[in-house]
Amino acid sequence: MVNKIFFITVLAGVPLSVVGRFMHWSEVLMFVIYCVTIIALAGYMGRATESLAIVAGPRIGGLLNATFGNAVELIISIFALREGLVAVVLASLTGSVLGNLLLVAGLSFFVGGLKHKRQEFNVYDARHNSGLLMFAVIVAFVIPEVFAQGMPEGKTMALSIGVSVILITLYLGALFFRLVTHRGVYQHKSEETGTHEEPEWSKGKALLILLISTGAVAFVSESLVHTFETVATRFGWSELFIGVIIVAVVGNAAEHASAIIMAYKNKMNIAVEIAIGSTLQIAMFIAPVLVLLSLLFQDSMPLVFTLPELISMVTAVLLAIVISNDGDTNWFEGATLLAAYLIMGIGFYLL
Amino acid sequence: MVNKIFFITVLAGVPLSVVGRFMHWSEVLMFVIYCVTIIALAGYMGRATESLAIVAGPRIGGLLNATFGNAVELIISIFALREGLVAVVLASLTGSVLGNLLLVAGLSFFVGGLKHKRQEFNVYDARHNSGLLMFAVIVAFVIPEVFAQGMPEGKTMALSIGVSVILITLYLGALFFRLVTHRGVYQHKSEETGTHEEPEWSKGKALLILLISTGAVAFVSESLVHTFETVATRFGWSELFIGVIIVAVVGNAAEHASAIIMAYKNKMNIAVEIAIGSTLQIAMFIAPVLVLLSLLFQDSMPLVFTLPELISMVTAVLLAIVISNDGDTNWFEGATLLAAYLIMGIGFYLL
Amino acid sequence: MVNKIFFITVLAGVPLSVVGRFMHWSEVLMFVIYCVTIIALAGYMGRATESLAIVAGPRIGGLLNATFGNAVELIISIFALREGLVAVVLASLTGSVLGNLLLVAGLSFFVGGLKHKRQEFNVYDARHNSGLLMFAVIVAFVIPEVFAQGMPEGKTMALSIGVSVILITLYLGALFFRLVTHRGVYQHKSEETGTHEEPEWSKGKALLILLISTGAVAFVSESLVHTFETVATRFGWSELFIGVIIVAVVGNAAEHASAIIMAYKNKMNIAVEIAIGSTLQIAMFIAPVLVLLSLLFQDSMPLVFTLPELISMVTAVLLAIVISNDGDTNWFEGATLLAAYLIMGIGFYLL
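Above: the input entities. Below: the structure tokens describing the complete assembly.
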């Protein structure tokens, strides 16, 4: 059913995006069309990646998921960087972190908790992820912010590059740790899911779909970025709000859906892996890669967020760690995360 | 014994308060009389609430405790708001949070630990409370502070109202969670205390005493608020110090006493429930209710503390979470909390 | 082997230090000689303290270790204070906290983890230490910083003295707790290490060596402090960088080595005790003692760090707590701590 809707959306959305753009339809209308089309295309990218991951086995599959999991976000951001929209990119990174940590995890815990009284997930993974969240957001994002005060711009950029290289290195280290040196070490046997999963598509078909949908996302994203200014003016939204809420929700919609479905099916390990794993990928891989890529464009992007962005991420991480650290969830823990997201959403709207 | 002292204090304090006020006795003397009288009256309110709670059963009883637990604090604050003493109210909220988290919990752990080598309390409750402390203080108090910088006053108030409504909603959600959907889910059977408690007073008598003592507290509090300025000038105290230390201690004295007695009797679950539960009630219910009530007065109160107030609460919460998270206490953990309270007390005194 | 190198280094280093100083050799050369000599002398002080601790039994031994463990750091700092180098002393305290928490613990976890898949240490100790780290760094260091903004200097100093006295008192309380009232309470029997350790040196010899090497360290440290300015100018390093990285590494080199060796031998309890215990000694004993001692000199030292110093320590503590709290380590947790140290190192270098 969902797949059918996605199919029709793509079938209609891509041509409409092309036609509308060259016919100069209303930018607000095009903004909506672009957003919906990207969400549907992201669904295809996700399914293609999953099929490839099953074919390729857990190691290469883990790498694939890690690389393409936030590809949409990455593509939109690159086009935004090319337009010099550094503030929008930083805002959308913030939005992805908040969205995954509070909205996705919150909805998963809440919806799952409505059906199941108590849900559990691997407590070792929770702690491993807590350490990385602390490192990425509380150390690697906070330090450049504090040290950059009163630094000349060149040094701020040097610090940002250094931090980015360290973040990417540690992210690769984490993959190596989980997929090679400590695979299964912190896992109960019963947890091994999907012993004999069948891929949805064959290797060739999956590759083709991944290629085409990625290309389509790139085209639509490039168009989307140009509508931001008009939309911001029309609705009285700040660029910050567009980045933090709109881009983040569009870029992560596919993941949101699957995490909540997994939680409803009581597969909390996967739901948490999507929510927290995606947060870590944004913070430790996408963000630093964008910093490094920005050196190719006219306006380079330092790893320096605005204070509201940074404090939102820091408090979200502290809340998520305290709530997830015992590996036990219920509807109320979900509600707490959602309440935090709501507070920050109001804050960014009013800013 | 204690009850007798309270009886005599009320018997003497209330008339003295009335007479002294209309005879215009020295304001410093009246300040002392008011404070002592309120502490004694709060004792009566507490006992009446407890009797009613036993009669009404755990659900309604929980609601009653949740509503009347910090009634004194609420009453004093409303009168202070009517006088436009917004800063004093914010300070006394801070003082209640610090007082409950560090002073009450600290004294309980310390005094209990002098008698018992190790004391334990329900680790699930500890984690549930940790999540709420993080949410209330680290998210809901910090976000308005950070976002309000550079916001026009109207938006700050809008943000404060939004955060307040969310806080109250989640507080009610927490009651629903603990009293309805997950009652006893996270509890060991052996923990169920007081299977057949007898109420001290009959329903009618308890209601009458609650009504009269609440009325008396209201009258005395209204008088107390008018003495702040004189006392501040006479002793060289800042309004901040009066709010953070004096009002907070007077408003919470009754709870302090019972938490420490419970800890001494090794009933740590109840002692912690009083200390942390009261903190949460202040932060998630009293504070936002006061923000909303302040809209009725000339000076509305945003949920924006001074930086020393906010940082004190944030660090107190982090310390309390790390110390209480394992559900195991001893005298040294109590001493650590007390030492933190002392440091903040010196800070506010010097400010 | 290592002992032989230390022996030769001391035998050559001390005379070279004396001769070089009075012959006015190049200050950069002398800086290197002083640093190497102090590291070797610190090795002797450590071994002498250990021998005395074994002879004296666990209580007095614990006290001895607690007092002489960071004696080198203390001696260098006193001479720096006498020269009015308040900023260097605060920076070197910061560097010791960061060095022990991130570099020493990080290297221990990493090197130990290369040999052993999972290593464990006493989880009660980890939690006890977490509480103290929170108290010392997050409460006792943050509060003066925040409250001092806009305070006159005299009050800042008063607050610093108050906090220092409380820190020292609680540190002594912690020793009393661990060595007297709760000795062995939180310990598994199997953990009791070294039931019949033989001291390396006799009591008299150990005392003599401790006395002589302490005297030599004092002399060399006094000389070292005078080279800072020249070295800073020559290499373009800030005083902050010298304090945070150089002085901290020199002052703690001996401990670094033994912690890593212990981790390699899978004696994680001792490795963690050295890393975290030393951090706590710096924060709760050396730092406040230096504040009080500074009253004897012309420039008194408030307990107010620069913002980059404070935020580095706060984030390091939060990271270390989340990573160490489960009492389980592996190479990747070590790598995470080292990555955090590297980020801060780059930051201080660029500042």
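Note for the figure: Chain A has a mean pLDDT of 86.
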